[in-house]
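This section describes the prediction task in plain terms. A model, or a person checking by hand, is given the sequence of a single protein chain and must write out its three-dimensional structure as a string of tokens. No templates, partner chains or ligands are provided. The sample shown here is typical of the held-out split.
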Amino acid sequence: MSNNLPKVAWIGLGIMGSPMSENLIKAGYSVTGYTLEQDKIDRLVAAGGTGASSIADAVKDADVVITMVPASPQVEAIAYGPDGILENAKRGALLVDMSSITPQTSVDLAKNAAEKGIRVLDAPVSGGEAGAIEAVLSIMVGGEQADFDTAKPLLEALGKTIVLCGPHGSGQTVKAANQLIVAVNIQACAEAVVFLEKSGVDLTAALDVLNGGLAGSTVLTRKKDNFLKRDFAPGFRIDLHHKDMGIVTDAARNVGAALPVGGVVAQLVASLRAQGDGGLDHSALLRSVERLSGSQV
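The expected answer:
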């Protein structure tokens, strides 16, 4: 470990957090991690990190604290209160929240952290589990330029496209737009898949040629096998995309932007959850199109 690198605390070792924290260790960073499940802390330790017994224990000596948890309530739970990050991290520490939450939660967190002398960036990511493992995530950041410059070398160990999008909350706004585009894209692909299959076309051939033209997309490249094999093991759960569609529809309403197609897809995601598919990958939007088209799913 080179001692000139900042010491990192990592809170939240899930589908995304585990491989991301391991990429930091590979890049030479000293990483102390905490999460709710002991087996995930053990995995970090096996990869060369250090386990912590609590949030306070994880963050007390950290120069940079990175958080990767499911939604706004969890960010608030780990940040605030006597056992939280703000009360236990040192003054001058940099808190990089990589969770996908409401822009307002990020703005509030930055304001409250500033009172403790803690700097904050919101830095949500796109690229899913594969992007996390391969360290090719797209990272959209909100906050101060100087803090972004400090965090950039560290973020470069996690992703490929790293962009400061504006003040606090801007990263979350861009992430919300990302989730809008992804959901609508998956829905369009799902409709095409059902149409092609019902028409008796060779689906593998059809998706290959479509992906080579203007209809091609990262979504289709990443999710093609999910569609072909009906394999909906989660890279990104419907439950989380449901949360994100709530964020983008609410934020759009607040700024006076109409999302006519986004609103429909938000309802389709909600209906999948209601049918018990919340734990499946978001490519399972295919299941709702199949149901609507009369297939037994």
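For orientation: The CA atoms of residues 194 and 290 lie 7 Å apart.
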